[in-house]
Amino acid sequence: MDKKALHVITFSLAMVGALNWGLVGLFDFNLVEALLGSGSGLARLVYIVVGVSAVYVFATHKNDCKICGEMMAKK
Predict the structure, then answer these.
(1) Residues of the chain above pLDDT 90, percent
(2) How big is the CA angle at 21 (ends 35 and 1), to the nearest 5 degrees?
(3) What is residue 70's three-state secondary structure?
(4) Can you tell me where the transmembrane regions are (predicted)?
(5) Which residue in 20, 43, 60, 69 has a CA-CA distance of 20 to 30 Å to 13?
């Protein structure tokens, strides 16, 4: 898998996680648990994959984001 595809996938998964947390905070509604069942192995796997994706995005953001990369180059 090339770097751009990996970035798109991991960023998308991180956004899904962020949206799910927004739903939990605003409406006390967990979309992952609603779709996959509370405490199910599949729901747990989704949380793990989303978490790993967020860590990857955080670790590589400076290199992948054109705006952040330009700001870092100016310093």
Answers:
(1) 67
(2) 75
(3) helix
(4) 6-29, 41-59
(5) 69
User: Would you kindly state where each structural domain of the chain is located, as residue ranges?
Assistant: 3-74
Which amino acid makes up residue 38? S
34 pLDDT more than 70: yes
DSSP string, 15-49: HHHHHHHHHHHHHS--HHHHHH-TT-HHHHHHHHH
The structure's pTM equals: 0.79
Report CA Rg, the chain.
15
Give the pair of three-digit tokens for residue 2.
């090339």
Q: How far apart are CA 32 and CA 38, in angstroms?
A: 8
Residue 44, Cβ neighbours under 10 Å: how many? Answer: 12
